[in-house]
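Might I ask for a little of your time on a matter of protein folding? The record follows directly beneath this note:
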Amino acid sequence: CTDVPYATNLPPKIARGEQVIQPWPVRELNQVIYVWYHPEGEAPSFEPELIEEAAAGNDAWGSFKIHTWDIETHMQEIGENAVDSAHFLYVHGTQNIPTPEFMTFEGVRRAGKLVSKMATPRGEITGIIENSNNGPGQATVRFSGICDTVLMANLTPVDQENSRAFYAFIQKKVDGKEQTGGVSDAIVKDICKQMEEDRIIWRQKQYFEKPLLCDNDGPFAKFRKWYSQFYTTDSWRPTVGGR
């Protein structure tokens, strides 16, 4: 606030030009507005990642297809799906369990790659899912094999047991035209269906610091160690024994 046009006697702080409202560090990137929040007011310690496919003016890719959800779980639980390849078969009914090729944790970034064989009317194809995190709130998933699709999955905590997911899908144009209907819409619809299936589990599951894991479970311990760097003393952490 720098001026009150109808006032003749301003509060002293405003009259002196002092800051009276807390500013928020904001970045505009990937056609998205990112806002940094820190419970102790610290400045941003890392920047949002540029997603080339979503950059303004990239005519090779289509417009966003946006879906949002309010989810009854801590956002760490949502992120842990990235290391759980087995659930694709047993929760989402995929043709097989995708094979993890690698999973890395470096600084604020996590990256992984899954490969899966899929039967189609054109014969068997190799589907590839490349997924990454830049901090806990910015996730990117690239699907290739049938219809090149990029998912920007942005997560925001609402409170200790609730999160908000903002999914923006973008798909590669064919012959300069956006893909609509058919396979392109089916891919987005299937991913949204998987989100609804996951929500049922997240709503009911309990969090344990030391879960009992089997030999083919993913690297949950590594993920949690990596994720822990984003907490402060007063952060909303998952509640042990709770959602």
